[in-house]
Design goal:
The chain is an all-alpha fold and about 200 residues long. It contains 10 helices and 2 strands; from the N terminus they run ααααββαααααα. Strand 1 and strand 2 form a beta hairpin. Helix 1 packs across helix 4, helix 3 runs antiparallel to helix 4 and helix 7 packs antiparallel against helix 10. The longest helix has 22 residues. The mean pLDDT is about 95.
């Protein structure tokens, strides 16, 4: 399926900023190269970047320019990529392919995949905490709290838990809706909320 040009253009900007964040040392310590390489493998070179696009578009509704929403969008994509890495693990879905390539635990190893997922998740919050993301600490705090709730036990992680519990069992429509609302819907909802937070709505 061909993606609309606007989504493709935003995806390219997100990809570049994501690569920038993953290319160098952000803090006082040099990350192990193998871990950094695994994080880049997981996050770069594929994906529609729908969630970042939605965040940027929602921020635009409140007059926020793309450049001023880009880091928050990249943080969201880091969380999404981490979730895919962990979802693919043998203990969960045990998938062999992701975006047409071997999944991270097969391309590297299972332990490195777990750590790369952890690294992407924590990088998301590091990005949100920096003044480069937004000059107002209250806005950064609101973004961080909202993303933690969307990604955590009452959101995406909770949905993944329900998904694993439901495997091989018949499920009612309301149970499926609840599961998907957490596993997939929570980050999509966050994209919209984050755009409004950036716009001080």
């Amino acid at each position: 399926m061909k993606m609309p040009e606007q989504i493709v253009a935003v995806a390219a900007r997100v990809e570049q900023r994501l690569a920038d964040h993953l290319s160098g040392v952000r803090g006082p310590r040099q990350p192990p190269e193998r871990l950094a390489e695994a994080m880049r493998y997981a996050a770069l070179g594929g994906g529609k970047r729908f969630r970042p696009f939605l965040l940027i578009e929602c921020a635009g509704l409140f007059g926020v320019k793309l450049e001023n929403a880009l880091d928050a969008a990249v943080a969201l994509e880091c969380v999404h990529c981490y979730s895919l890495v962990h979802d693919d693990l043998p203990a969960m879905d045990d998938d062999a392919l992701r975006r047409g390539r071997p999944t991270l635990h097969l391309a590297f190893d299972e332990a490195t995949a777990i750590l790369a997922g952890d690294g992407l998740l924590t990088l998301a919050f590091e990005i949100l905490a920096t003044p480069q993301t937004h000059g107002d600490a209250a806005v950064r705090g609101a973004l961080t709290l909202s993303l933690a709730r969307a990604a955590g036990w009452g959101g995406m992680a909770g949905g993944q838990s329900l998904d694993l519990e439901a495997e091989g069992k018949p499920a009612r429509i309301d149970e499926i809706r609840h599961l998907q609302g957490l596993k997939t819907g929570a980050l999509i909802e966050y994209a919209c909320v984050a755009g409004a937070i950036l716009g001080r709505a």
